[in-house]
Write a structure and sequence with these properties.
- There is one protein chain.
- The chain has 287 residues and is mainly α.
- It is built from 14 helices and no strands.
- Helix 4 crosses helix 9.
- The chain is globular, with a radius of gyration of 19 Å.
Length: 287
C-alpha cells in the first residue's frame, strides 16, 4: 500500500520540483532521521560495504522511477514496476537456486500484462509504450537486483537496522551529488535571494511523507522480511503495489486505463496470485 501511494506522491511533487531535487530532498530527510544509526554503522566494515552496494542499486532504481514518472501516469508507473517479478527469479536462477516452473510462467504472464498495459494509450502514448514506461521497467529491474542482494546480506549480518540506515545515507549522498550541477545553474541565473524565497514553496509535507513512510519504513520492512522470505517470493508479493497505485492514482490524479490496459492489469494480478500460492518457498540458509 505504501509503495502504491508513492507513485502519486512523486507525481504531485514533480509539479513543483525536478526529479533531482525531489530525490535529494526525500532521501536527505530520510537519512537525517537515522543519522545516529548511520554513524554507528560506519564502524562495521561488513555492514558498510553491503550498504554501499545496496544503496547504489536503490539509487539507480529510485532515480529512474522519478524520471520515468515525469512522462507517464502514476498507474502506469505502478504496473510497469512489476517487472521486478521477472528480474528476481532470473537473478536467483543464475546464482544456482532452483526456481519452480510456476514462478517462471507467472513472471512471463506478468510481463506480457505489463506490455498490454503500457501500450493502451492511457498515458498519452497513443497506443505505444513511451519512454517513461521504459524507465519505470528499468527501475524495477534495479529494485529486483536490490531485493536479490538484500536477501544474501540478511543471511550474513546479525543486526540489519544499521544496514538499512546506511543505505539511506548512500541514497542521500548520491542524490545530493547529482543535484550539484542543477543548484550551480540555479544560483548562477537567479542568485541567493531567489533561492531563499523559493524555500517556502518546496512541498515539505510530501517530501516528509516519502522520506518517512515510502522510503525509511518500507526499506526497514523489506530488510526484516527478507530474513524469512525468499527474494523471488518477496518480488511476487510486491505485485500488489499496482492495486494500491491504481486506487490512489484514480482517487487523486484521475488516471484511467483503456480496455487493453485493464486486460494487462488483470494478467499481472492474476499471475502474481498464482505464483504466491504455488511459487518459490526456498530461502537461503543463514551463514
Amino acid at each position: 500500500m505504501l509503495f502504491g501511494s508513492n507513485q502519486v506522491a512523486i507525481k504531485q511533487t514533480e509539479e513543483l520540483l525536478s526529479g533531482g531535487a525531489l530525490s535529494a530532498g526525500r532521501f536527505g530527510l530520510a537519512a537525517l532521521f537515522f543519522l545516529p544509526s548511520i554513524l554507528k554503522g560506519l564502524k562495521n566494515e561488513s555492514a558498510r560495504n553491503a550498504a554501499a552496494e545496496l544503496g547504489l542499486w536503490l539509487f539507480a532504481g529510485y532515480q529512474l522511477q522519478a524520471y520515468g514518472l515525469g512522462s507517464t501516469t502514476a498507474s502506469h508507473g505502478a504496473f510497469s514496476g512489476t517487472f521486478t517479478v521477472l528480474a528476481v527469479p532470473i537473478l536467483a536462477g543464475l546464482s544456482g537456486r532452483k526456481i519452480p516452473v510456476s514462478t517462471w510462467i507467472a513472471a512471463v504472464v506478468a510481463i506480457f500484462g505489463v506490455g498490454l498495459l503500457t501500450g493502451d494509450g492511457a498515458g498519452g502514448s497513443e497506443g505505444a509504450p513511451i519512454l517513461g514506461d521504459f524507465l519505470c521497467v528499468l527501475s524495477a529491474f534495479f529494485f529486483g537486483v536490490h531485493k536479490w542482494r538484500t536477501e544474501k546480506y540478511t543471511t550474513e549480518l546479525e543486526d540489519t537496522s544499521e544496514l538499512m540506515a546506511m543505505q539511506l545515507g548512500v541514497l542521500a549522498s548520491a542524490s545530493m551529488l547529482l543535484l550539484v550541477p542543477e543548484l550551480a545553474s540555479f544560483f548562477t541565473s537567479h542568485g541567493v535571494k531567489d533561492a531563499v524565497d523559493a524555500v517556502p514553496a518546496i512541498p515539505w509535507l510530501e517530501l516528509a511523507y516519502m522520506a518517512v513512510f515510502t522510503t525509511s519504513l518500507t526499506l526497514w520492512i523489506e530488510v526484516e522480511a527478507l530474513k524469512a522470505v525468499s527474494a523471488p517470493t518477496a518480488a511476487l508479493i510486491y505485485t500488489s503495489e499496482p492495486l494500491w497505485g491504481t486506487v490512489f492514482a484514480y482517487l487523486f490524479l484521475g488516471d484511467r486505463f483503456g480496455p487493453t490496459g485493464w486486460i494487462g492489469a488483470t494478467l499481472i494480478i492474476g499471475s502474481s496470485l498464482v505464483a504466491q500460492f504455488f511459487g518459490d518457498e526456498t530461502k537461503e540458509e543463514k551463514i
